Amino acid sequence: MFDPLTEMLRGLRLDGVEYGRCMPTAPWGASYAPGETAYFHFVANGSAWLQPHNSDWVELKAGDSVLLPRGEGHVLSSSPGVPVKPLKLMSRKTVCEGIVDVCDQNYDGGTLLFFTVLRFNLDQEHPLLRMMPSVMQTRDLAQSEPTIPGLLNAMMREVNMSRVGAGGILSRLADVLTATIIRTWVENGYGDPSGWLAAVRNPDIGRVLASVHLKPTHSWSVDELANVMGASRSSFAQRFVDAVGVTPARYVAKMRMHQAKQWLREGRRVSSVAEVLGYESEASFSRAFKRMMGTSPSRVKV
Fold first, then answer.
1. Which helix (H) or strand (E) holds 264?
2. 3-state helix/strand/coil string of 11-26
3. Which of 23, 35, 86, 109 sits a CA distance of 20 to 30 A from 116?
């Protein structure tokens, strides 16, 4: 049976991934700056406290993990209120390829943390990321998805053993785990039952959305999308607007520009992106990009 969410998750990838472990001596505190990356924390031993920006403290115990999919700024510490130091200012020591120890103190045998800094291959304004909460705890999700603890344990073993190729294996495990977390969150009804998420769960509209997300550079026509649903042009267009809140044409244009923004961040030239998307000139693409994304292509940070 066709599953729109599964089809969308096929296109979800992580790149620019950094892995680290930290074995701090209490009292300790680290601050993570907000940005274009996502963060994942796993408490292997001991405990820690998490405070997302402008939110309450949350205690994390051994075996707990959290995903901050939109790069929310936050603090991780031994207890609330202790002095913190920015992660980027902490000393680093390479454990093996792709993994670093991040700590300014000797390990006292208490807390052992594993963290990853993740970059999705999607723009942060992409609806697949916008639908998620700023913080996702796997403690609740693991009750519905038994593979999550197994994936966490596998990642922890790779960090501890420091074997050749650990960085590559960790990147694949992180990819699978992140997709599993998102899928479990959606499937078990944790999200908003209205809006985009409800549209994804709708068999007919979801099939159309999946097609657009799998081929975001294609200039989909309303007729083509109506054929995907198996409905008439007029019937499809109205159902799409009712479910998604925008016209099919605008949704397709937005997805194409999300893809363009990602390519620009990867360092592609504006002229190259314009050509791939089928624009007659760089100028016409730039105007369309600014109209849709609110900024010019040249201002997108690499």
1. helix 248-265
2. CCCEEEEEEEEECCCC
3. 109
Q: What's the domain count of the chain?
A: 2
Helix axes 222-229, 248-265, angle to 10 degrees: 100
Residues 66 and 168 both lie in one domain: yes
SS (H, E, C) 273-300: HHHHCCCCCHHHHHHHHHHHHCCCHHHC
CATH of the domain at 120: 2.60.120.10
* DSSP assignment letter at 191: S
Domain that holds residue 251: 195-299
For 157-170, what is each residue's pLDDT tens digit?
A: 877 776 777 777 87
- Are 162 and 247 contained in the same domain? no
Query: Which string of DSSP letters, residue by residue, matches 119-171?
Result: EESS-TTSHHHHTS-S-EEHHHHTTT-THHHHHHHHHHHHHHHT-TTHHHHHH
CATH of residue 277: 1.10.10.60
What's the predicted TM-score (pTM) here? 0.76
Are residues 163 and 205 both part of a single domain? no
Confidence tier at 196 by pLDDT (50, 70, 90) = confident
pLDDT at 24 over 70: yes
Q: Is the model's pLDDT at 219 over the cut of 60?
A: yes
The tally of CA atoms less than 13 A away on the side-chain side of residue 161 is 13
